[in-house]
């Protein structure tokens, strides 16, 4: 069980994306894990063949517990196997473990022509994600294996194979013998949820009793079904986790706070003119511009961007911008947009939308939770003028943006009305002080005056 | 589209973006942002959903007109 955040102590296995005999490469998604905060995909830290799944679905285990046994080649199964594990309960350990060099054994696929060749887990996962039924695909790879290209082609083909659904819904449908294509989904973008499958299955007269024992415990329901007591438990555990982390932050980090009002006239004017020419799906929101400016400025003021641990401050070379996302059922998570400073605003906007929607439907990935270097909270979007965040350890700063609003603005002895936003900075006094913090906020404002260059 | 169809379209779109909102409990005077707690990304997704489902493109300058459920229904009825 890897650590999926500085404050994580245990996790519950929700779903296996691989089975014994599957060949996995480093980085392939192998399991879905439920932490106190959210549900996340976990990738393999090793390459090899999965020989044993050591944790059952629904089991909660402490960080560091081995989840699966992965052997480099099947011949090695008997002697002490390599175990995909993360030994330490810290994100740091998880990261360094993930970065450890892994011996490769590409040939290991060969001895498993029957099961492993049909479809490799990453391809299966891709199919899952795209809503393609792998049984209907004709494999063109070696020994009839289904390749990535086959899956992509199946998606491109205008067939009814293209059904959006959650993996859980898909599996439930298979168990109940329900045709996914015949169900209308109520999930995000019409995706079929577990609840939809149950509804569709319900009227059928003779079939094994639906859902409950056929599926793993529904603790990780789609949000569509989020009104159960499980959702209540989730909110409670999320609150506890946030409470524990924030008390640690407030106890151990000497915060200082700055605030300034940013002139957004140029940024909002530019955004509105750009949006007027775009289809809805490509429109920008002010947050995208604010995030980009915050990321760029962080590159220039490195005291805001990095980690403070036992060895003191370690600035980060990359800007992985954490974005605090309010979950609709309560609580928040702050996954990262990687290398936010290098992304064009359009890309950043897409990533933001993707991240927020996955955060809310509970499909974040380990790396996104584990490595933000600086976090932005944009809670003001829903009403307040300014927000002073609490630094998320081991980070050293938190940027807050309030609501974008029109306000009176005096300049050159004239009074006008402009869009503006209050930006705040909570920063770690062990690393920086007000001068550097002020420099950081001032840089954000300067960058926002030339939105077309962001 | 008539008002009934517009109401259905609005409710369907809100249901997709905010499945936790129980439309039966919601007053049509409710404001989408403040009362239903849609943030700017949720709101954009709502506009996109309506565009996809009904073909009605709500330009940004008309956002103030669709700030409430009632306003959204009236807008869809007038433009659909």
UniProtKB/TrEMBL annotation, chain B:
Instruction: Give the Pfam families listed for this entry.
Output: PP-binding (PF00550)
The protein here is known as Acyl carrier protein
| Organism per entry | Arthrobacter methylotrophus
Q: Which part of the chain is the Carrier domain?
A: 1-80
InterPro entries annotated for this entry? ACP-like_sf, PP-bd_ACP
